[in-house]
């Protein structure tokens, strides 16, 4: 196993991800664990290497150090950015506060003589130097290497951009190999953990399940857990995992707000109650939600109403469960499908997000209000890892690879006031669009258009337009199709769907969904448009 000590960089978890991608087991722990803790962690003889992460701070602002034991275990250590600087300082080198910050793309001259960088380069200069394209973000730099170290990499502005003491297995780089902008980063981290540390690449998602199950059992003991199941990927995978760990100690509460996709509620029940035999309470609250939404057209207000009601309904169910007791003291844990990107987002939200473009449905504050402890078994995982885990847990791939669906559901896909009739029309139109996206394959890639798009859905426009059907004039509603491709949902391009697909969808919707007589396709990118229409 590999120990990653976290000095607080925003990308520490990416190091863990790269190590897991190399099929090596790793754990991330805060940098201030004690030396005794480190020795204990290594006591089973399985610890093969340590990685010291970067930090958002400077060595002059904080005095975070690696526990001394890290350098006493006789195993390889890799320092990244701040990790390099603290390694230099702790082993007798010097770090100087930088006057200029180096931030972003850089080209590093790599000295190929070290085991870490041997034969790893992006290009070679005319003089024959191997060069790496990397991503740097630092102010301070190492100005004097500790005794025993030799130079491994340099840039013009940072002469000591990499250093190594190969006898002891100590390596350090000023750039960030964990981010994808560092082209050879993955190769470099793989080389460190597999070749230099000598780990075996035998860790797979199934092992993660075992470890996670064990952890959940330890954390929960014989107490009870409730979880708000939405049908989305994260809460579904969390539910399946926790159910695997503690069975009937878990109760899922599935609040149907009446703004779900066609048959979605039944599918969720069928999977969790039917196939997994989990305890699921389905609360049909559609009348309550639609009632409170009547007459409300403003998107943010709709979001607030839906989010608020969701919390109220959930709390009421939790209270009922407690009252019923079932001979137990009721739930003491609230489980959530928080994943790693959510953790980063909420941590960094203060400085980054000056304006709220859309207030996302969130249930923050719920555990405190309910007096419950939090259980978040997916906190360390990225979305695609969560999906992989879901499949390994036996959830159907269609569920796990489903496009994201916003918490307020169709509530933000019906423009303006939400009405039940509108929702019914929209659900049917949307189901046709999704069905055809799944039917149509792209010849070149062999993939379906559902898999080729990141998010696709139908939007209900509460305007009427004139049409002609048979001999008669129609005066009916309009829907817009939206399909986008994006890697992070921060920016997105509209998808160039084949005309044949659009044609089929349009003709099916107009023929099969009475009440809609016009279909349009949204060709706006984000920015300046957003993915959802509200
Ligand atoms: P926008 O429309 O902001 O959407 O480009 C980006 C991503 O966020 C989703 N989204 C939401 N998710 N509650 C959610 O849980 C919301 O209120 C909400 N609004 C947008 C959207 O579906 C897309 O994936």
UniProtKB/TrEMBL annotation:
Its Enzyme Commission number(s) read 6.3.5.2
Task: Give residues annotated as binding ATP.
Answer: 230-236
Q: Which InterPro entries match?
A: Class_I_gatase-like, GATASE, GMP_synth_C, GMP_synth_GATase, GMP_synthase, GMPS_ATP_PPase_dom, NAD/GMP_synthase, Rossmann-like_a/b/a_fold
Q: Tell me the name of the encoding gene.
A: guaA
Physiological role: Catalyzes the synthesis of GMP from XMP.
Enumerate the Gene3D superfamilies for this protein: 3.30.300.10, 3.40.50.880, HUPs
Subunit (UniProt):
Homodimer.
Q: Name one Pfam family in it.
A: GATase
Q: Which residues form the active site?
A: 81 (nucleophile), 176, 178
Q: Which PANTHER family match?
A: GMP SYNTHASE [GLUTAMINE-HYDROLYZING], GMP SYNTHASE-RELATED
| Organism of derivation | Hydrogenophaga electricum
Q: What is this protein called?
A: GMP synthase [glutamine-hydrolyzing]
What's the catalysed reaction? Answer: XMP + L-glutamine + ATP + H2O = GMP + L-glutamate + AMP + diphosphate + 2 H(+)
Q: Does the keyword Nucleotide-binding apply?
A: yes
The UniProt record lists the GMPS ATP-PPase domain at: 203-402
């Amino acid at each position: 196993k590999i120990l990653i000590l976290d000095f607080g960089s925003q990308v520490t978890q990416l190091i863990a991800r790269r190590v897991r991608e190399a099929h090596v087991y790793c754990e991330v722990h805060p940098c201030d664990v004690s030396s005794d803790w480190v020795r204990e962690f290594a006591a089973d003889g399985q610890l093969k290497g340590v990685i010291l992460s970067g930090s958002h701070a400077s060595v002059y602002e904080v005095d975070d150090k690696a526990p001394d034991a890290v350098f006493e275990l006789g195993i390889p250590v890799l320092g990244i950015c701040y990790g390099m600087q603290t390694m230099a300082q702790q082993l007798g080198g010097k770090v100087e506060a930088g006057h200029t910050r180096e931030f972003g793309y850089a080209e590093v001259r790599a000295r190929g003589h070290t085991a870490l960088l041997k034969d790893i380069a992006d290009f070679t200069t005319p003089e024959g130097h191997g060069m790496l394209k990397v991503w740097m973000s630092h102010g301070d730099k190492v100005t004097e290497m500790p005794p025993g170290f030799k130079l491994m990499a340099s840039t013009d502005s940072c002469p000591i951009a990499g250093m190594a003491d190969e006898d002891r297995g100590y390596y350090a780089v000023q750039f960030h190999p964990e981010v994808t902008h560092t082209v050879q980063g993955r190769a470099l981290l793989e080389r460190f953990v597999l070749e230099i540390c000598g780990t075996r690449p035998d860790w797979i998602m199934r092992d993660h399940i075992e470890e996670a199950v064990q952890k959940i059992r330890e954390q929960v003991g014989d107490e009870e857990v409730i979880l708000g199941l939405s049908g989305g990927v994260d809460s579904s995978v969390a539910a399946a995992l926790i159910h695997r760990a503690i069975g009937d100690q878990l109760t899922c509460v599935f609040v149907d707000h009446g703004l779900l996709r066609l048959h979605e509620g039944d599918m969720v029940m069928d999977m969790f109650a039917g196939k997994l035999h989990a305890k699921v309470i389905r609360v049909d609250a559609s009348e309550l939600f639609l009632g409170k939404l009547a007459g409300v057209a403003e998107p943010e207000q709709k979001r607030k109403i839906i989010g608020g009601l969701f919390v109220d309904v959930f709390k009421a169910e939790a209270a009922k469960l407690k009252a019923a007791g079932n001979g137990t003291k009721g739930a003491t844990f609230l489980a959530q499908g928080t994943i790693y990107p959510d953790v980063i987002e909420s941590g960094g939200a203060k400085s980054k997000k000056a304006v709220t473009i859309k207030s996302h449905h969130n249930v923050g504050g719920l555990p405190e209000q309910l007096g419950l402890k939090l259980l978040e078994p997916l906190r360390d995982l990225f979305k695609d890892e969560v999906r992989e885990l879901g499949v390994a847990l036996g959830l159907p791939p269609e569920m796990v690879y489903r496009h994201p669906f916003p918490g307020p559901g169709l509530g933000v896909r019906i423009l303006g006031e939400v009405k039940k009739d509108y929702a019914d029309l929209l659900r049917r139109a949307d189901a046709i669009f999704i069905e055809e996206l799944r039917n149509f394959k792209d010849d070149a890639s062999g993939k379906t258009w559902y898999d080729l798009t990141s998010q696709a859905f139908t939007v209900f426009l509460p305007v009427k337009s004139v049409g002609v059907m048979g001999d008669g004039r129609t005066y009916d509603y309009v829907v817009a199709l939206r399909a986008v491709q994006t890697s992070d949902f921060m920016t997105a391009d509209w998808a160039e769907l084949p005309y044949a697909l659009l044609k089929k969808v349009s003709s099916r919707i107009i023929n099969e969904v009475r009440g809609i007589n016009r279909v349009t396709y949204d060709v706006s990118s984000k920015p300046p448009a957003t993915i959802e229409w509200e």
